[in-house]
Amino acid sequence: MHAFKRKIVDFIKKTNIIKKINYNKFVFYFLFGLKSQFGQFKININTKCLVLSQYPGAETKGLGGLIAQHPKNFEVLCLTNGSSILPLNPVESSSIKKQEFQEVMKMIRIKGSKIFDIDDKTLKNHYTTFKKIDISEADYIFIPNVYDNNIDTIALLKHFKQILKDKEHKETLKVIMYESDFPLCTLDFFADISSIIETKKNMLKKYYPQDKFPSLVDRIVGINAFRAIQHNCEYCEAFMAFSVDEFMKIPLI
């Protein structure tokens, strides 16, 4: 079946049936749109999880609840420093966002975390820094949605593909996409975060305080409530999972 699908995709590409602007999204849906297991994501005591975040707060939007449930299993790396908050200058902005990130990580007592000193919208120029990330021990690496349409998300994913080619990793490594700026088009796994939703809200409030971002936290966790409709819970986070081979075949814009 996979070979048949690949032949159709190749035919469509060669014959230019679909305009190029829509080609990437079409192929992505065609290759992975039938994934439907949507089981509960489970972490055991020895599972090692690495989260790559495109900006401070993206990790909490997408899987703050799961991280808070299993802080000893997670390492979170934030690849940019939040330097583009207007009307602040880049130095003031990055200082605030770094502090917020560190406070959130401290709140949940995570095993390991780091925020890189890379200005927003410049990650594409920093592969030499990105390639220093150690992926050799990870069982799961969490990345943002491939269609988040953020310049740093695109750079993160391109750099990540490159280190998967260049660096040692486990043969059983799974790549897990999370929802930060845009929802995923199809899902594989969910994590029930009902018992820890207040912790996630408090994490989000560090980044998005009520006086500056009215109702934004409730809107963010609203997608967790929506995802939980299919399950016997109040809130859940949802993910899309790939083997390394599958992920490498996903077209990037």
Descriptive overview:
The protein is of the alpha/beta class. The chain has one domain: Rossmann fold (3-Layer(aba) Sandwich). 42% of the residues lie in helices and 15% in strands. It has nine helices and eight strands. It has an eight-stranded mixed β-sheet, with helices on both faces. α1 runs antiparallel to α2 and α4 packs antiparallel against α7. The two termini are 26 Å apart. 37% of the residues are buried. About 2% of the residues have low confidence.
SSE blueprint:
Layout: H1 2-15, H2 20-32, E1 39-40, E2 49-53, H3 58-69, E3 74-78, H4 90-107, E4 112-115, H5 127-130, E5 140-144, H6 151-166, E6 174-178, E7 189-192, H7 197-207, H8 216-227, E8 236-243, H9 244-248
Parallel strand pairs: 1-7, 2-3, 2-5, 3-4, 5-6
Antiparallel strand pairs: 6-8, 7-8
N-to-C order of helices and strands = HHEEHEHEHEHEEHHEH
The biggest sheet, with number of strands, parallel, antiparallel or mixed sense and barrel status, is: 8 strands, mixed
Extended strand count: 8
Q: How many individual helices?
A: 9
CATH homologous superfamily title: LmbE-like
Mean pLDDT: 89
What form results from the Cα inertia axes? Answer: globular
Q: CATH topology, which one?
A: Rossmann fold
Q: What structural category do the secondary elements indicate?
A: alpha/beta
The number of domains is 1
CA distance, first residue to last residue: 26 Å
| Helix proportion | 40-55%
Oligomer: single chain
- Can you name the CATH architecture? 3-Layer(aba) Sandwich
| Beta-strand proportion | 15-25%
